Amino acid sequence: MPHHADYSVEDSLADLEILDLLTAPEPPSSPELHKKQAYKRRDADLDPLLLAAAASYGHVTRNHYTHDFFPAVGDPRAEGAYDWTKWQPEAPGARKERKPRLKYESRQAPRSQRLKQAELQDKENGSARTATSPLGCADNLPSPSPKSPTTSPAASTSQSLLPPSPELEVKCMARTRVPTPHGPVFLHLYHNNRDNKEHLAIVVDPAQLQEDAPSVAPHIRSRTLDAVWSETETEMDRITRGAYVGRLSKDSQKPSQPPRQRADVPTSDAIPSPLVRIHSECFTGETIGSMRCDCGEQLDEAIRQIAQPITIPSPSDPTHTVTIPGRGAVIYMRQEGRGIGLLSKIRAYNLQDLGHDTVTANLMLGHGADERGYAIAGAIMRDLGLGADGTEGVRLLTNNPDKIQALEKEGIRIVERVPMVPRSWQRRQHSKLGEELVGVHVHEEDERGRGATMIGGGEVYGEDLDKYLRTKVLRMGHMLPLLSDLSDA
Ligand SMILES: Nc1nc2c(ncn2[C@@H]2O[C@H](COP(=O)(O)OP(=O)(O)OP(=O)(O)O)[C@@H](O)[C@H]2O)c(=O)[nH]1
Q1: Where among 357, 386, 419 does a domain terminate?
Q2: Pair 177, 205: CB distance under 8 Å
Q3: Which residues 6+ apart lie within 8 Å of 43 measured at CB?
Q4: Looking at residues 58-63, what average pLDDT do you find?
Q5: What pTM did the predictor assign?
Q6: Which of 213, 222, 254, 300 is within CB 3.0–4.6 Å of 172 for a Cys-Cys bond?
Q7: What is the position in ligand 1's atom list of the atom closest to the CA of 336?
Q8: Ligand 1 mean position to 327 CA, how many Å?
Q9: Is 41 a catalytic residue?
Q10: Which atom of ligand 1 is nearest to the CA of 478?
Q11: Which strand (E) or helix (H) includes residue 12?
């Protein structure tokens, strides 16, 4: 409980009464609740822990939990406005006066209005909303997770009345070469007919730049990008959207062939299947270098590993070896916060600071632990010829068993899983065993140099990260040996 100077025993008792009410096994229905004065008025701040505890119980509706209240600090003339920048600690022994009351405003329209609006919308759409799904009317609620056990049969019936969604289509709208600390990549931007997000594919296949060298492995190219889009499309249009071959320059501008006219390069068993990672967007980890998660490091590490040169027996003389450039792709999905979005992820971090883990925090906000889908990722991979029917399959960089299952359901052929061990865990494990870090990609100075354009550039580490990684292993089934298990080995 907070120790405000004006927080009294009465307030604590009132809090306990509220906690009892909110977390009782049954929702309150007794006449007691309706009696006037049954619960005493209280003016002290509500303890966030109390709210969190109450919210983790079933019958407290998300409707209440996600109300956004904010004091009217913006308008100094508003009733109860208080400028917190001028706050001074109270002198000991000073007379306790009640703080000016803050005026709270809900950003949600009253429920009656929202219900009316939803009814109107339903009439316009011709769909029947059942009276049992009033939560569906709130516009600031997360959409119910497909995994959510709270989805009522009535809700799913009304969903089945909706027209079936059109077959998923993805189209690569543009492609360009981007030099990175790990070598050149081709950035592909995709549109699709399921969501309005611009998903990306970071294709590592530098052999494509050496146009004159004989191809030993099929190039990773987008079918939709190389297709002819219209009869009026000019060569310059095609080149501008990235449908070219080789290294584009003032002296070299060769439009690509449409997929059907391209000669197939046979795949050789000697060449490992392309290495692929499905990566989910993480603004905090990738842009401001948050060390609450390892997402930024994973993105860097994935590109680094995919770009590693491959040594294979020489096709002309098997007694010798040749080195070919690395091949693969990172499919970068705009599924921030495991699909819950940045706003909810930021709120989830606050719940994590209150002591909840990454899974519980999502659940407390009315989301699933993981709301991501992989249909679009699968379609992008098929467009790039990665893991599609009749191709060589892919090696997938992941610890997440759900991801493997979901992609296989999408018809993607995964021939091998390549684990992603966090750099800090590798380094600590190796230093525990007193091993030299020869050949292990955690040499800090080296990494800092190489990843200079990525925030931090080295490894992420810290208490928050360890807790997050342990939860992924213990609660989300990630296939990663815990640091403690490694040290016993
Ligand atoms: N909701 C939520 N999302 C998080 C949190 N930390 C990272 N993320 C998101 O998690 C996603 C990355 O997922 P990970 O669990 O690291 O990786 P994965 O894709 O499931 O599995 P791997 O392939 O093994 O890395 C990104 O969208 C991040 O924004 C968190 O604490 N809460």
Answers
A1: 419
A2: no
A3: 98, 99, 101
A4: 45
A5: 0.66
A6: 222
A7: 27
A8: 25
A9: no
A10: 24
A11: helix 9-23
